[in-house]
Amino acid sequence: MDLVKAIAPFFCVLMVFWVAARLAVSDAAKDRTARERGDGAIEFSVNRQSFWGVYVVLALTSYPVIVFVVSGFDAAFGLWLVSLCCGCVLLLLMSFPGTIVVNGEGMEQSYWVGPPKRIQWKQVAWIGTDKKKKRVTVKSLRGDKVVHTRQLPDKARFLAELQTHCPAKMPAEAELKTLIGV
Fold it and tell me: Which residues partner with 130 through β-bridges?
């Protein structure tokens, strides 16, 4: 058996998986802004290329599950592989950044899996920034968190909305300027 013919398909799948994973976690385009909806709410949603990256990763990790189900449950290794792939799919769906909607009452972040997280303005307990991970975290009095990650657009607008509705909870101005790159 030719070693190159055996390794080439695996290498190609691995490369596609790597490119798709890079797309899924890529930064939001610098020129993208938050979208204003008709009801006055402001929506911060993930780039479309990130969605395509997630779709490809989901397809690649779901393929062994489909093959195992179609071929029958005949090997313990197959069951282990299916469990691993299902866990990866769930982890990806739970951790992919959700769309944040900000309105006059508060904010809501919706993920693909799980209930949306809602925080009213009067229940904001803490706002923190992480320069290294390029994210802003808002925590409520009940412990709910809304996280604006680097995959979401218009971080400056998100911070401006937070400044408008809860200025006493905002971090230092120098910390904010280094976060948004001003």
Answer: 135
